[in-house]
């Protein structure tokens, strides 16, 4: 009887040991936060890899694929910023464990930017230099936000180290911006410079001689002046020079039946003409009257 009872007891013990015991396991909050950081860095790295692959394959022409890849990097990076902003501050050990993922991402970006710079001549020839520069600037802005977010999520004692590591990402992108700066083919229109000088002088002095046998009142001569102006201008870009002075003018006045001469002077003198009468021979005049009556 005792033997039978012992066998039953042993059977119950064996059954109990064979039945698995359910144990509730909860993920560490810190581990979950660290996974979020690593996941974001990995996602950005994957988008950079795709970009670099297309950059290496680019041989000129359409840059749509390159610009689309760049846009994806910006989108993934900004999404990562939103994700990490809500995370708790990492412990010192977990923060230190981010060193390797950050360095890996930095190297990927450095490689992609270097390859992009190598394709500069083809991209500029396609007329997309300025577009690429603008796209890189957007990458830089997004990466700077991500770097700042990561730095804010590590203990203050490690913030300097985190900032230094994250700066490697933005520094790599900046090299690309510098390489493509000014490749948009923009032109500047220069101003115009010019000189125009013109002087006008008009002087008139003269005398009029009346025809024989006529009495002529003093003549007032109003000269007619004509002027021409010559302007010279040297322009850079676009512009025109217009003279503001009338030009060089000369004048002369001639009356029918008289002759006038003029000499130059610095100030136009008043023109006066006094007609001189020829003295009429009295005997000649009487003879002319007698001949008229004889007809």
Structural commentary:
This protein is mainly alpha-helical and 295 residues long. It has a domain at 28-180: Up-down Bundle (Monooxygenase), CATH 1.20.1280. It is 54% helix and 3% strand. It is built from nine helices and two strands; from the N terminus they run H-H-H-H-H-H-H-H-E-E-H. Helix 3 packs parallel to helix 7 (129-152). The longest helix has 29 residues, at 29-57.
Q: Helix tally?
A: 9
Structural class: mainly alpha
| Count of β-strands | 2
- The strand order across the widest sheet is 1-2
Q: Give a short account of the largest sheet.
A: 2 strands, antiparallel
CA radius of gyration: 51 Å
Q: Roughly what percent helix?
A: 40-55%
Task: List the helices and strands in order.
Answer: HHHHHHHHEEH
Q: What is the CATH C level class of the domain at 28-180, in words? A: Mainly Alpha
Ends distance: 202 Å
Low-confidence stretches: 1-10, 16-30, 186-280
CATH 2nd-level architecture of the domain at 28-180:
Up-down Bundle
In the CATH scheme, what's the topology name of the domain at 28-180?
Answer: Monooxygenase
Question: Outline, from the CA principal axes?
Answer: elongated
Chain-averaged pLDDT: 71
Percent strand equals under 5%
